[in-house]
Predict the structure of Alpha/beta hydrolase fold-3 domain-containing protein.
Amino acid sequence: MEFFYALALIAGILLAFILLVLIATFYDSFKAKIPPEVDQPSKLSLYHYFYTLVEILAKNSESLGIFKEHILIRLIFGGLPASRDSKLFIKDLHFDGVPVRIYLTRLPSASKRRGVIFFHGGCGMYGGIRSHERVCRYIARKSDSVVVSVGYCLSPECKYPAQNLDCLTATIHFLKTAENYGVDPDRIIVCGDSVGGTFTANVCQELVNRTDIPKIRAQVMIYPFLQALNFNLPSHQKNAFTALLSRERTVHYILKYLNKDCSMKEALLAGSHVPASMNLKYRKWINPDLIPEKFKQDYEPPIPTSCVPQVHEETKELFETRFSPLLAEDAVICRLPEACIITCEHDVLRDDGLLYKKRLEENDVKVTWYHIEEGFHGTIGFFGYSIFSFPSSSKIVDHAVNFIKGF
């Protein structure tokens, strides 16, 4: 009889837990904003509800000591295995210890091909080579390029800046050995989405002074994260609750990625991690006044807050250029390769891309800019999944391919 009582108790606790998760999911999803102008809003709403359910379940499981939050969320970001592609030669290798996957067409080429190095998105904690398999295959086929997808190590198992260093290591190796793969070392392009765009910007900045290896020919940044000083830019306000990446979720992932205490989230959102002197120094580069007027509808300047010294000390990594490439000096920016920046209107990170575009142009770096009015953050994660994809997914990847084909 005691066994049945224990079983009933466990079932009751489990049922209560599930109900709490569902209630929290409904509440969070109710707050979410699905703009009618966005790609297929009903589909996006369904995806957002499912993702929120998994995220809340993961957070509660971590609180109860069952398993870490990132483990469950990785199942979503991991992607589904792709079917065999007879048109491509695909091989897994290691570049100086960093896992990579190479894609190239089986058709012979009369001359050396261009190379594309791809860094996947996923907040530095999620995703991998498989999550962007369809994107990389498409780029290789449509642009007739040798594509190298970099499987950099993930946080929290690998502490920041291990991710940046893996991307840099793989890039340097490929630049040095490009001809071994039938690639012209003077036609290598670096590309990435979201945090992969961060790594793209950082790798290009790190290599501007290197004279012992070929120069990167161009860079492609797809809705990149480029600064962690100001979370109150017009796009942060407009898309504060937009699926799939809200303003609050952005800062939560930043703190998780850096293995920091998430109780500092509100301080970062308010800007209390930035001293007045630093705000003054970087105001010339990170400032709502630098955003074109058409992107500032309904924008309201935030209430100024004082810096909390303890929070600033705990989050100093945010001010490193490898984390916030927008903070790089003009002496570095002016030497960067030609760029393609792709932004989405319904993306909390939209203004990061707009500000970097402005900085590059002011330093005479040629920029090709595509803005996807119906796009949202994370849309290319659905690329190649037939009816489960979005028109903006294909539009973004096609823009990237067309830019790449110009080199």
Q: What stands out?
A: Residues 2-77 form one domain. The chain is about 40% helix and 15% strand. The radius of gyration is 22 Å. Strands lie at 88-95, 98-105, 113-119, 146-150, 183-193, 218-222, 338-346, 367-376.
